[in-house]
Design a protein that fits this description.
329 residues; alpha/beta; Rossmann fold; eight-stranded mixed beta sheet; four-stranded antiparallel beta sheet; 21% strand; globular
Length: 329
Amino acid sequence: MIRLDGVHVRHKARSGGVFRRDSVHALTDATLEVGRGEILGLVGESGCGKSTLARVLTGLQKPTEGEVRFHGRDLWEMSAAQRRDEFGSAVGVVFQDPSTALNPRLTVRRILRDPLDVHGRGTRASREARVEELLDLVGLPGHTLEALPGQLSGGQRQRVAIARALCLEPELIVADEPTSALDVSVRAQVLNLLVDLRERLGLGMVFISHDIQTVRYLADRIAVLYLGRIVEEGRAADVAGAPVHPYTEALLSATPSLLETTERIVLTGPVPSATNPPAGCPFRTRCWKADDTCATAFPAATHGPGEHRWHCVHPRTPLPHLPSARSTA
């Protein structure tokens, strides 16, 4: 449905002097695709490029280099009107914090009706009917329509944000850490809602989080980012059940699981800067396996069983296939 080919995103930083600005390497050579009806999980630390990748996928950020293809068409060769009408209505976004993502001065009814008004969908009566249908879809009572966001709980606000993302019947939802601002008890409700909507509506979804165990539960495939590069990608059962890249191992060890016992990996060494990334593998400054070979060039992709691929010259030997958390639930 959407494919990224060799995408680079570089921003100009304020550092570097008056005549020469430093470049922030937010994304480097990202190649990724999202199929119809699948959930792709993006995981990594803060500042690794997850949100930049989300902005590229939603057409909010034009790549410095590379291509973004939507149903085989180059997104940035389309006219602005085509991007808005064809691509804009096909992609919905759920932002991280519902308290800032929703206009506090508008009622829920207005918030849900605005996308329908802007895109001129149907008659006034059909738009009102669609608003009520959306509210029912995300499990909110009818009286919520007249409420302001400030009168709702955090979980209710995020359900409104999800309903807004579904207004135009998109093919893809991009959810940028949609549960990070919620209480633990509410997170499970929102995650279960997203899984239910995917099964009922056949939605494709990109779910972004720093918690690989949450992504493991939700996603069909996982892509692991480090300093703007995708270092490992594959089916959720392979990446989370048998990680190959040292960084993926470290992420899994930092998030406890009730299903497995893992030894905590504590990373040491300097955290590299995105304005001056290290030569070779960006993880080598913190990797316990790094040697001189890791400093020469970023490793080419190695392909394992199925769709599993990674970029590492000292990978962990893949373990036998293990079931994902979702399949054992």
